[in-house]
## 1
Amino acid sequence: MNRRKFLASVSAVTLAAGLGLDARHSARASESEAVFVLASAEVGAASQDPIRATLLSTVATLIYDRLIEQDVDQSYHPHLAESWETSADGMSWIFKLRQGVRFHDGEPFNSATIAWWIPKFKGTPNEYLVDAIDRVDAVDDQTFKFVMKRADPNLIFNLASAFMGIPSPKAYDAAGDSYGVTEAVGTGPYKLESFAVGQEAVLVANEEYTWGSDLSENKGAPHIKRLTMREIPDASTAFLELKTGGVGMLLGVPSQFLPQLEADDNISFRSLPGMGVTYLGFNTRKEPFDDLAVRQATALAVDQAAIHKSVFNGVGLESHQFLISSLAESKIDPALEIHHDLGKANEILDKAGWQRGSDGVRTKDGKPLKIKLTAQSETSFKRTAEVVQAQLKAIGMDVEIVIFDNTSVVDQLKKGEHQLAVRHYDWNNADILDWFFSTTNIPYPNSTAWQDEKSQSLRDIAMTQSKTPEERVVNFRKYQENLIANFLFAPIHEPVQNYAFNKTLLDVPEKLRGTQLVQATVVDIKVVD
């Protein structure tokens, strides 16, 4: 899976001050050491190879720099590329590179690096990021040109992706298939000292780093000189460690933990706008959700406001479409959004011939309206499923909740065995619609199994025929409106990214930069004296 699939299941990451079992003692023992503890979807990354990996953790954003960085407001900022411009027809891009940049192995970073790098994506899961590029022309050491196969107004977004971190050509080619495990060499603020898959990655500061992006106050070497990024699957353990002083910071704090953390005087918070949506996903190849009427009624029976309050403690936003609210492509006609309407939901089922029995459960042609609702074992997923179960009972649907770990849920989706599932994605680009609903992605990640000529035509126009950013916005709006009209999902909630940290251990900037807490902010974090 590429970054979109990775982000679709991220739930929590923790940043800890200290090392080993006595993390609090270690944090106090050395002001230059800290530990990031990775949880949920970041656990299990098999390598730190940004070109071929299907799962990357925060580690990769610290080892590698990108040409361009994206900020929380969706704006783009220079990094390894000092400037860029495109032709009027979008068929060529010229980039000017920052001078004086070197890889961790001492090799120079220049236009020849880019000419080597882009072709390496051919045949990889991440090829889509650069598939609009025909070739790279190195004009001089610090200038190169992308000659395009087609105009791609999404190119700048792609270049800011975590999977577009640039590795050292010398190290990459020498290591072959073992690259990203035995070594990972970039130009970033941290060097990889060691990596044990499923356990931890140890990073040390790149003291020669002088090319931080303008998203960071600190343009030089990071303040924290040694980072041990451990994998601890149990998020509850990390939350307890935060309160007791063993953990310095939690990323992506689930809302149900906020009240108890807010009660601790040593805990402070930062937040960023959300990057994803929690939703119900239908399997259109499984009864009864092969019927548009049932999908529509189910979607209208979901009360987003009630779930927002009871499951997420009022934190974040109700969601009434598939895209996050900060995207221009999300500004569709409000009348087309999916809102709770219990009366209409019951009316739709009545007209479709679903009759209520004495037990309150509807039947049609002798078949009861009974379904299985799949959910992950994390608390927010389970609680959402329980509330949805009660809400769907009000339209005469008998819902059995089936709980699996995330790996098992994904396996079920890939096999098309589910009927309805509580899902979540994190991705701040409208092309998430392509990821989850294109016929080319059946059976997974298009686990709706939606296959429709009109939808696919609108997808093709949005993805490959948009010439300008403005045109792309219009085309994606039309594509999403079509998907909404077919009720392929029931949107529920758009969370805020909550970060809780122990202020006795860490000094965290008031304003976080970047779309998540990654390199741009990490280099500014200090251990408290």
Note: The chain has two domains: 3-270+497-527, 276-494.
## 2
Amino acid sequence: MFRIGAAVLCALWCLIACVVVGVRVQQPNAFDVDIQNLLPRTALEPVIRSAVADAGATASQRVAVLVSAEDPVRAQDAAADLERRFVAAGFAPDHAQGEAVGRWMFANRNQLSCAVDPAGFDADATLRRSRVLLYSPLAPVSGGMLEKDPFLLTLQLAECLSPPSGGQVGDAVLVSGMLTGSAYRIDVQDTMAKAFAGWRAQWPDVTASRAGAVFFAEAAARQTRGEMTLISGVSALVILALLLACFRRPHAILGTFAVTAAGAVGSLAAAFLLFPSVHVMVFVFGSALIGVTSDYALHYLATGPQTGWASRRERLKVIRRPLAVCALSTSLGFAGLGLFGVEVFNQVAVFSVAGILTAWWFTMTLLPLLDPRAKQANKLTAWWNRLEAPFLAFRWRPAWSVIGLLLVAGAVVAGAARFAVLDDVRQFQPRSAALSAEEARVREAVGFSASPQFLLSWGADAQEARQREETRLAGWPEAAARDVLAVSRFDPSDARRAANEAVLRRELFEPHLTERTRDLGLTAVDPFAAATPAPALPPLIADLEGTAGGLHYLVAPLGAVAAAGPDADRDGSRIIDPTARYTQAFATFRGLAAAAVLATFAACALLVLLLYRTWRALLILAAPTVGVVMAVALPTALGVPVSFFSVAALFVVIGVGIDHSVFLFEAKETQGSSKELVVFLAGLTTILSMGLLGLSGTFPVASFGIAVAVGVTAAYLCSFAPFNVWGKSGHANKQD
């Protein structure tokens, strides 16, 4: 029943929700974009999570651009201009840390070694390389350096340990460094893209090859935004035209938008009130609210022409019970996600249930105020009846049931034969071929090819962690061990420092220092003089270690060579592949979401039996069941693998399918007014708003849209099929 008090309370809740959302979205931690927060917890998980964050920041925030031109001087000028533009956009060039790295290596030159194992130190090779560097025109050699570092160990360590830090690379110039913000932030991507585009316009004759996650992320985001803008724009225009054509009143558009917006604001506010931050993955499930809550508005708006714009009380009476059944059954389905003990699913449950109930509340209280009696009620009613006439004239033939069963069976058999799943995050969106080619050129020129994998070593303290990392690297082939950016290579354990210094003294300084001093013409040499003050570990290396869960850990990013053949995990060290972890997370949640779908059907079956008190009410579940089966089987039969996103789409299919079936069931069981046209509109608007996402070139978006389009279509068609089952006779209880 329509009551002003309930309308005031609903308006107050919507106002509070808007305030909550407005305040919270201004906070930096409002939305959680860390995919690691989807992962399950284990005993070592705090260490791994922190390590993945460190490695991810190090890898994803790196940027490298190789600039070349026919004139080397012009290449240097262009590279300098590009670096200035990048710095203004939020970029810290590597050479800014070069001095800090150099001071560290000079201060620790006698405790470091290019050899992974002290036993592998080659004194003759060190002597030969020192002579080459001594007479190299580019080597920064001075008399003061030679007095303290007569074998130029600092320069040799810089060559074998330091990652590329910008500067001349053959005939090209490398601009490299770190972003000061996350590469996956839209504003960072746009700023860097704008800086590069501006530079490209200024230097059209210069060749530039880019490497870095920010460039790939920006290209992918640009593609997705373009697709979503086009698809959303087209679907919005078609839906607006459809609503105007059927209702011939702007109130239909206003009412539908208001209910959908109320549901969205209510869902987000509830999540913000109960959780410190809302994970962006919640919106994958939450997007189902668009297709479900808009149907609530359509069903109320349709009571206008159906009843000749009777009183609000009479119009609400027509939809009161079926709309309550729809809202309760869909809410139960989403609430079931909270049974798995997964934080993100708890957020989905709160987000979705609050959105559905808010939209239902708004429809039953405030929407009637937005849809007053039409001035030309009789004319609009006649127009509505004319549109609905073809649907009422439709008669289901027994042959169509046979054809439908054959189509469903064929889709199931074909889908089972071609069944496949896709959880690998690397395949969710294709990488830009042009950027991949540029990245390959950078890697070929620089000589270091980073991979997502890293070696994680941990211990009770920093010394134990370093010893474990050193032991692990010592067991690798020389080429693989050198293809690692390891903390222990720059800052070894105390035991390794002592071993390195002992080898240098025994094999280099004792037999060769006197001769070296004479050859250089030096009178005073002090190769073991301590640097004062002692320099701090450069941030480039210091950022690769930390503490978590009471353990000290080290992160060693692997190059392509090192990642190609990692050996088995050992005590205190492990190869971590973040991509594999994320892939496993999506596989786990795909399975949990599928279980939640089954739980939803069970809850809905119990609900309709309690409300209608007849076995015939179970027919309501026939259409959504067929919709879910077809949403999985038909795309799979056509070669589209099942993913977490396609399973998430099943909640849309269930919600819309139950919506169709409940209203048609009510109309037949209570001899109420026909619902064929509004059910058709509800299904079509859902397909237009969400099913068209299947046209996207991004796999998660496309798989979601395809499943919605197929499932909603199948559920709609099945809802008209006649079913005869054993059960209690008679109709559902008529409404008061």
Note: The CA atoms of residues 309 and 374 lie 7 Å apart.
## 3
Amino acid sequence: MSDIIHLLPDYLANQIAAGEVVQRPASVVKELLENAIDAHATSVQLIVKEAGKQLIQVVDNGIGMSETDARMCFERHATSKISSTEDLFRIRTMGFRGEAMASIGAVAQVELKTKPQAAETGTKLLVEGSAVVIQEPVATPAGTSIAVKNLFYNVPARRNFLKTNAVEMRHILDEFQRVALAYPDVAFALYHNDAEIFNLPATKLSQRIVGMFGNNYKEQMAYCEEDTSFLQVRGYIGKPEFARKTRGEQFFFVNNRFIKSGYLNHAVMTAFEGLLPKESHPFYVLFIDIEPEKIDINVHPTKTEIKFEDEKTVYAIVHAAVKKSLGLHNIAPSLDFDGDVNFAPLQPIRIQNTVSEFENEGQNQRESSFSGFTAPASPKRMSSKGWEQLYEPLKQQPASEERITSASTMNFLDDAFAPASPASGSSSKALQIHQKYLLVQVKSGVMVVDQQAAQERILYEKYMASLQHRKTGASQALLFPQTIDLSPADATLLKELYAEFQDMGFQFEDFGGNTIILNGIPADVHAANEKELLEELIEQYKNNSATLKLDKRENLARAMAKRLASKLQTRMSDLEMNSLVDKLFACEVPNYSPSGQKTLVMMELNQLHALFQKG
């Protein structure tokens, strides 16, 4: 039998390794920025074109490389960071595996220019598909410049899997922000398609946060610090009143390395318990300094997951540090944190249960008392005529009364602020319960409609129709146009979605930098807190992008519907309730909200009889 096992050629081995290390343009950005930090740079520039698909260039003023080092850095497992097994457990640098440059060189065209601080001339290398095409001396400033062009040019299948420029650019911004936050003493700049996105001078952490996320963060930050013999915690947390509906700006750094940890996030969230609105998330940028021997960072190629030697102690110290900061800044009741005091967090007063509590906490009671309460089997479309036949009016309506049907042209959001119909002797098809549910009599029994979920379904289909047909939505001009400062990431996203926002009825103009002037909002939106509306809409859009694979029109329609529906839990008149039910029945999928939540449940008359043991 002939031998069948052979050694893979270097170029193929590098392409295989690149599959883990280089997943998208943001992966290249992360590796190059970390290399610049390890080179002791004090100034770093990131230049990107076409969201990194055409060009990713990082220019730093670090220590540079010799001619031999420049050639060696593209070899697999070539590194200056470690040389023994013991070094693997004393890592303070960002990189250490020696895989990044070899992987990048295998799937892109790379131009490297580098010069040590004391050298007279530098070195230029051109690498394509792991092969060095050119190596020659060059006149270049001290430091290193690496330009990665045409990423995945030789792996077209990988290139085809890249997302839109807007999505890929958001991933690049995430990586840039993480490194820039970890090293506020280093100046960073970011340019995309020749437009300046960030220009961050070297400063302290608080000013770096403000420079990165906007001036409105000045008033919401509280300093957090805790020193122990085991580890040190420092950074900033956000005050509870500034919490957002999406996770947004939440950062953990261990020895200046960004990590993702649901375990430590839970420590922070429990410290905020009783202080946050439901389903809200606080801002935090927390740094944990710990001896490298007590952690293992060699867990995942992206190095964003680490293992702690004693994770329970880490959890307890992080929780105590956040709790202490909340107390010191009079955000939570002041306590003696030096003493051994056990206490329970304050709980907010609850007037009414939320929909999720109705579904979860009352599950046992509903199963015992409403065993026959079932939802429609499938979200099939029901015609307006079919829904009309479902109703059995309590009594005959006067002929003179104009009944609102699913074909009515009355706008739902206008109805929400309209007075009830003054017609005497009219009967309502619905009864509102706790300003959350509508109880509706139907021929076969009763139906309960989730008010918020129904509104979300109606609004979603309305906005999807506008976006799909590219009809510019009706807009109401603001009496006083509002100037809104956005974070660079949000400003970039808003510009990418300009046409879609205009189709929904928003009117705004670029004021330069990351500032816009909002001149108008959709005509069917209640005019109040326009800035909050826009910011929450962007937050919801980003949250959808992180968890769902949606095109930008559907994503925006969902975000707008969810945001507006959450603000419409009010007492409704008979006219408003009837209009809501009719409009829900006219939807293509009336049974479920866009997120999959049931909008209605049915209970047959015989099931009602069974509850009272009637034959």
Note: Residues 333-385, 391-428 have pLDDT under 50 and may be disordered.
